[in-house]
Amino acid sequence: MVREWDPGTASAAEIEAVLRALNEIVAFDVPEDPPWRDVKFREYLAVTMPGERRTSWLAVDESGEVLGHASLLALEEIGVLELSVRPAARRGHVGTALLAAVARRAAEEGFESVGVEVIGGTPSIKFFESFGFECAFIEQRNLLDLGGVDWLRLGEMAAGIGAGYRVEYHPGGPPEQHYAAYAAAKEAARAAVAADLELRPSSYDAERLRASLATLHARGLKPYIVLAVHEASDTIAGLTEVVVPAQRPTRADQYDTIEVPAHRGYGISRAIKARMLFELRAAEPHLLDVQTWNATENEPLLKVNAELGFKPDREWREYDADVVDLLRRLK
Ligand SMILES: CC(C)(COP(=O)(O)OP(=O)(O)OC[C@H]1O[C@@H](n2cnc3c(N)ncnc32)[C@H](O)[C@@H]1OP(=O)(O)O)[C@@H](O)C(=O)NCCC(=O)NCCS
């Protein structure tokens, strides 16, 4: 049975059951990944950016036990779905029933298409392809084991930035006076990678950035920022963002690293990413590794990541499907 579910008001027992199911799935599909903890897990599921909506569903058996979970995040142009079924309940069409609930809602909300991020080497690939989803974009997840970092060499990288630039560290988010420039740098970089499906909310102006930082904090995701400031013009020349989730504090997520085009060629990306690792080591004692996602064509960043010690891990794919076509296949 599939029913709509609100994690914001659900009982603590249900939140725990969903967490247990998620950890079974992680252990089965991506056993190298750390399990999730019951810290701000409700908030992680329930909170969205202002103006965005996430609808969730649970699949349960006759005794009420959770078998699977799905959600649909309504972004401006696309509905983004997440779907997972406990290993012991697979191949019994639980995933199909959850997908049907998601697809019906996406149609009701007027979405033409839905997108999903799928981890390479998991059964999700065959599942979504069997419903006509097409792969639109491929990224590589890369992993840096902090235990293997050569900190002496990293110190040289952190110092190796052109003259006239200052590096600043801002735990919690960039300072207010830089919001507009920060958002502009992010928007310019986003527009430059037009190929992906934009399945994650973006921060294209100062207001959105403010809302996005508040949302991160409310979901238990702590942002760390390192900036390169061009001293003569007092503008942002580069930025790098890492988030440490309260739910999974041993693994940090590297978000954007951006070099503003006018400031390329001064070693900015390498220096700010290296500095970030020093700051993380000091601020997050539980941290074991950092994961990041890169498009295979982003060669400059791949080179910097390789120098820092990131190693390719798994492929992550973005799939999308036309909603009308999907509903037809689900009948
Ligand atoms: C993808 C997933 C949701 C499918 O759930 P499910 O309940 O097993 O799917 P269904 O039984 O509804 O399968 C529907 C169709 O998908 C295809 N399919 C599903 N799993 C498949 C597999 N392992 N191999 C081949 N085809 C598969 C089949 O065509 C199947 O139809 P059939 O059984 O009639 O042949 C489930 O495997 C899952 O949760 N995967 C992991 C999710 C994830 O992202 N994990 C990692 C991050 S936490």
TrEMBL record:
Coiled coil: none
Pfam family of the protein (one): Acetyltransf_1
Keywords: Acyltransferase, Transferase
One MF term in the entry's GO annotations: acyltransferase activity, transferring groups other than amino-acyl groups
SUPFAM superfamilies named among the record's database cross-references: Acyl-CoA N-acyltransferases (Nat)
InterPro entries, sorted: Acyl_CoA_acyltransferase (IPR016181), Bact_Acetyltransf (IPR050832), GNAT_dom (IPR000182)
Domain N-acetyltransferase intervals: 13-156, 183-331
Protein name: GNAT family N-acetyltransferase
Classification of source organism: Bacteria, Bacillati, Actinomycetota, Actinomycetes, Micromonosporales
